[in-house]
Every structure is written in C-alpha cells, then in structure tokens.
Amino acid sequence: MTTQFPSLSPEQKKELSNIAQKIVAPGKGILAADESTGTMAKRLQKINVENTEENRRSFRDLLFSAVDPNCIGGIIFFHETLYQKSDNGVPFPKVIKDKGIVVGIKVDKGTAALNGTDGETTTQGLDGLSERCAQYKKDGCDFAKWRCVLKISDSCPSALSIAENANVLARYASICQQNGLVPIVEPEILPDGDHDLLRTQYVTEKVLAATYKALNDHHVYLEGTLLKPNMVTAGHSCTKKFSPQEVAMATVTALRRTVPAAVPGVTFLSGGQSEEEATQNLNAMNQTALHRPWKLSFSFGRALQASALAAWQGKAANKKAAQDAFTSRAKSNGLASKGEYKSTAGADKASMQSLHTANYVY
Amino acid sequence: MPHSFPFLSTEQKKELSDIAQKIVAPGKGILAADESTGSVAKRFQSINTENTEENRRLYRQLLFTADSVEPCIGGVIFFHETLYQKTDDGQLFPELIKDRGMVVGIKVDKGVVPLAGTNGETTTQGLDGLYERCAQYKKDGADFAKWRCVLKITDTTPSELAIKENANVLARYASICQMHGIVPIVEPEILPDGDHDLKRTQYVTEKVLAAVYKALSDHHVYLEGTLLKPNMVTAGHSCPQKFSNQEIAMATVTALRRTVPPAVPGITFLSGGQSEEEATINLNAMNQCPLHRPWAITFSYGRALQASALKAWGGKPENGKACQDEFIKRALNNSKACQGKYVSTGEKGAAGGESLFVANHSY
C-alpha cells in the first residue's frame, strides 16, 4: 500500500498518454461502432435489413470510408468488425489507421446479475483479458472500451453495485494498460425512471467518486485513460423538462467534483438521446462558465448513426446519402466539442433558453 | 446511499464558496498564526523570550498590524486564545483582521492521539462538541477552520488504517464546519522525516489524497466550500539524493492532478520544515509548472512566514518595526510566488536560508 511497485515504464506511460491525447485532440471525438451482433439486429430490423455478416460489414464500410479524421479521433470496433475488410479488400483497422484515426475495441462480455440486489448487474470479461488485449494490440488496436451499467430507482444503485462495478472497471483498466491499450472507463447510469436532474447528479457524483477511488487503488495511470459517462439528465419519465444549459451545469459540476484533472478527456455516451439533443447538450457543456480541465467530447453510437442508417435502408444506391448524413452529424459534434455548434431549425429556441431560468441548486 | 438529503441551502453553499474564493484570491495566501501555547514555547525559547500570554499577544499584534500585507494575505488562522485577545487599543484581533479585509480562521482540532496496533501512527481528536464550538466560533468572527492530521512514511507506514482513519476524521470535521458556515481547510500532512525519495513521497501523497477525497464524497462535503492544505511532495529529510525545485513542483502538481477534483477552489501548502526561501521558491516553481492546474496554488505558512520576523523581534519592543518588515517581505515574496512571479534575490533575511525542520514535528 505504501511502497510503490511501478507497473508501467516511462515509455509505456508516454505511449498511453499520447494515444489518449490523440483521441480527444481539439474538435475530435469517438465514433462508437461497437454494436454487438445482437444490438445490430435491432438497428437493422428498424430499416428492414437482414442482420447478416455482409450487411454489417457493408454498413461499417459505408461509415469508415467516409469518416472525417478532423472530427473523429477514434473508432470503437466490435470483435467481428476488427477482422472484416473494406469493399476494396483492405482490413478495416488499416483503413482507419491510415486516416490517422485511433482504433479501439470493445472488450467486455456483457452484464451479469448481482444476486440479492434489485435487478442490478456487474460486467464480465476479465478472464483471459490480458491475453486478449495483447492480441488486440497486435491486430491494430490502441484503446479499449468496457461498459458497466447502473440504474436509479428507490433502492438503486446499491452500495454493492457501485463498489463492484467500480472495482471491475479498475481491474479492466489496469489490464489494458499493461498491454498498451488506453482503457475507456464507462460507468453508465441508465436514464430510465422518473427521477429528476438533482437525483441523477447526486448518483453520478457518488458513482464517479467510487470509480476514481477504485482506479487509484488499482494503481491505474490516469493520464492514459478516458472516461465515458452518461450526461447528467433527468430520467426519461420525469415530468419536468430541463434545458441543455441545466444539463450542462449539472454534468460539469458533477465532473468537477469527482474527475481528477489528470484525466485527459471525458467522452460522453449519448444513451437514448436524439442526435440533435446529444449535440446540443455537449455544446452547452463546452460553453459553461465553469472551468473544465479535461476535454469534453463525444463517444456516440446512435447519436452519430441514426440518420445514416435511416438514409441507407440497406440499399447501395443510398450510400452517399447515408454517408452525408453521418458526416454532417460528425461535423456537428466536432463543433459541439469546442462549444461552437450552432443548431439550425426548430432547435434554436431550446438553445436560446436563459441560463437564469433554473432555481436549480447544483 | 442513492438518495440525497441536502442539508446546505443555496445561500449556505454560496457563502462557503465565496469565503473560500476570498481566501485564495489571486496573489493571496494564508498566515498560519495558530501555534498552540506549547508550540509557541519552542519558538520563543529560540529567541530567549518568556512564553507568557502577554508576549504571545504582543507578538501576534505585530503580525496583525503590519502594513501593506492586505494584497498578500487572504486569511489568518488563529489559535483559540488569540481569538479573544485584543490590540493595545482594545480592539479584538478578529475584528482587526476582518476590518483589514482578511478572513479569520480558527484551529479546531485537539491534537494527535495514537492508533493502537500501528507503528507509532496517529489520528486527530477534537470531534466532541465540535458542532457547538463551530457555532460559537462563527459568532466570534471565524469564517474558516483548520484541522491537522499527520501521517508518516517508513517501511511500514502509512498503514491502511492510518490513511482511512485520518481521511474519515477529516471528512467528519469538514462536514460539521460547513453546517455552521465555516470553510474547512483539510490538512492531511505527510511528515518529511525519513530517507525516502521523491517518488515515494509522491506515491504516498497520491494514496492519501485519493482516500481523503473519497471520504469527503462519502460524507457529502461541498467541495467548492473547502480548501486543501497538503505537504509539498519532497524527498525525506535524510534522503541522500537532492531534488530541484522544478522536480518538486512536477511531483507535487502531478500528485494533485491525479487526486484533487477541480471543484476545490484552492490548495494552500504547508511549509513543513522548509526554510522561508525554499518554501517560496518551491511555491513559485509550482505556479510556473507547465502542467495545467485547475485550482489556485498558494501558501498557508507558519514558520515560513514568521521565522525571520520572530528572530528580528527577539522579544524586544524596540524591534517591533524590524519584525514587521521581515514579515512583510516574506508575505510579498509569497504573494509573488503564488502567481509564479517570484524572482529570488538570494537575500535570505534573518532566518531565510535556515532549515526550519524540527524532527518529528507535532504541534
């Protein structure tokens, strides 16, 4: 406890730190394209496309061939996709790396039930993780992602759930770093429920405090990590609505109270937010008056791909339209990560809401 | 655990936050004048002065009436006795300090006590009746408080128990203070005694601070209304290897960046046993460090502000001005240092270069 047994050489630390900085370089964020086969089934079903390996490859190819390295610093892959090739026969990791974008890989194996809790979970995937990480590094990956899930209800999250998920995230992070992979730490608190903004902020602060204590206990090198948290929003069924400015204040306040300055960047998940909502919230965060020592950027899945999927419909003829939709979202989020996004159309009213409306105590 | 039961109103939070910001406003730091009667005994002995209540009053009066220190001193920490003493003109010391635009603070801990079963480690007592004492101190003019915990580095320490127990007691103290509109300065001092190197101190400091902030979170402490008073990260006093000011600055700022949330408004370093000049130069180096710092980095110095002043005074009334001049000089130097603007002239003052290290220091 009091004697250090250094686990990373200065070179290893530098490599990790450089990778992390590269991913969250100014104006850049992450494309989360790591939907599992099961999740892709849901996405493709919505546009009446069969969930075949070829269709999955085809859609990812559509995204990867158009992706703009000026707004995308990293892409998270699902295992299958890491070994697929572009229409031109080039392995996807190479396509991405050649564009100057960092390749990431989802390494967790999904949630597992925590006995004796109110439907809470931890996440599995630690078995053989070191060997898997070593292989992924050889196959072109430089960062990884692991998702833990917590929920808010009258009795949740429980102390066990908070402690267990924080611990498993720290174990995962520690193993990644040993293998030259930057771990993205994702303690997602689901937006399901009718709780208000204050409650989400409170829970987020507790969860993040536990996460960073666990990372410290496990001797994780913070400068070589990224955080992927939920934005602090009210629950989906909350009757009260909150503006992007309120969401931004609550989120940034929670982060300021828990995330050490050594962490290079915070790349938000979009949860169930619409594309526009997610962009506006991210933008508002980068405009708050509160000082932020880490980059605030995005790691969006649906919020980057929804329009592209809808435009594609599985048809080759729609490829360009789909790519345009994707590029447009990516650019918007790139701007939002600098606080420079100007929304168009109906969204203007929401973004113009006064900062002084809230009686809200942070 | 998942429900919040807020106990600080918006106004209370704002008051705490404003006080903290005022103390660490640009160019300002803290004069730690809270030496207990026992500590003053040691100081006065070194200048052959009798440790009487009157001498303590006279000495503190010199410090509190020194000219031109308002831009340098954001707050003054008092010892209990001093809070109720008066100037020659009959003005209560806290009133004088407040009138001069400085914030009044009060040491509230009751010293260290041993932790059984450890290698000479301690926790700090003072929680009993702290709630009522804070209410009274607030009425008597105090707007911030200080509580010192002590840890040490050896082959077997700090132990897990020492880290956890001290973090917990600091969090209890902080929580109680805030209920009474008093900003708690949280001080987890890791002593410089020993021959360990800079790396070891940095490692231990990171572990201790991580535990402190986890405890503060567990106890629902409002971070924007607190200050941190840590040790600088330096090698142990008997370490054969010497480290430059820049190395100390890098090690210290790195440790803080890994553990202290940005919501904390300011970090006010203790000087430990460093000489006046050393403490100033190290503070300056930190404020010139290329690593990004989201909190103010300033001083909360006792010996490092007073050593030369004390020596110049020597207990003699005719030396009053000389004493104040030394103090003012140190205050100005540290004010520059906390903005990264200090240029050492090599001038050492009456005690500037002397190491103020007192082995195994406890108040």
Automatic annotation (TrEMBL), chain A:
<dbReference type="InterPro" id="IPR029768">
    <property type="entry name" value="Aldolase_I_AS"/>
</dbReference>
<dbReference type="Pfam" id="PF00274">
    <property type="entry name" value="Glycolytic"/>
</dbReference>
<dbReference type="GO" id="GO:0004332">
    <property type="term" value="F:fructose-bisphosphate aldolase activity"/>
</dbReference>
<dbReference type="InterPro" id="IPR013785">
    <property type="entry name" value="Aldolase_TIM"/>
</dbReference>
<keyword id="KW-0324">Glycolysis</keyword>
<keyword id="KW-0704">Schiff base</keyword>
<comment type="similarity">
    <text>Belongs to the class I fructose-bisphosphate aldolase family.</text>
</comment>
<dbReference type="GO" id="GO:0006096">
    <property type="term" value="P:glycolytic process"/>
</dbReference>
<protein>
    <recommendedName>
        <fullName>Fructose-bisphosphate aldolase</fullName>
        <ecNumber>4.1.2.13</ecNumber>
    </recommendedName>
</protein>
<dbReference type="InterPro" id="IPR000741">
    <property type="entry name" value="FBA_I"/>
</dbReference>
<keyword id="KW-0456">Lyase</keyword>
<comment type="pathway">
    <text>Carbohydrate degradation; glycolysis; D-glyceraldehyde 3-phosphate and glycerone phosphate from D-glucose: step 4/4.</text>
</comment>
Automatic annotation (TrEMBL), chain B:
<dbReference type="InterPro" id="IPR029768">
    <property type="entry name" value="Aldolase_I_AS"/>
</dbReference>
<comment type="pathway">
    <text>Carbohydrate degradation; glycolysis; D-glyceraldehyde 3-phosphate and glycerone phosphate from D-glucose: step 4/4.</text>
</comment>
<dbReference type="InterPro" id="IPR013785">
    <property type="entry name" value="Aldolase_TIM"/>
</dbReference>
<keyword id="KW-0456">Lyase</keyword>
<dbReference type="Pfam" id="PF00274">
    <property type="entry name" value="Glycolytic"/>
</dbReference>
<protein>
    <recommendedName>
        <fullName>Fructose-bisphosphate aldolase</fullName>
        <ecNumber>4.1.2.13</ecNumber>
    </recommendedName>
</protein>
<dbReference type="GO" id="GO:0004332">
    <property type="term" value="F:fructose-bisphosphate aldolase activity"/>
</dbReference>
<keyword id="KW-0324">Glycolysis</keyword>
<keyword id="KW-0704">Schiff base</keyword>
<dbReference type="GO" id="GO:0006096">
    <property type="term" value="P:glycolytic process"/>
</dbReference>
<dbReference type="InterPro" id="IPR000741">
    <property type="entry name" value="FBA_I"/>
</dbReference>
<comment type="similarity">
    <text>Belongs to the class I fructose-bisphosphate aldolase family.</text>
</comment>
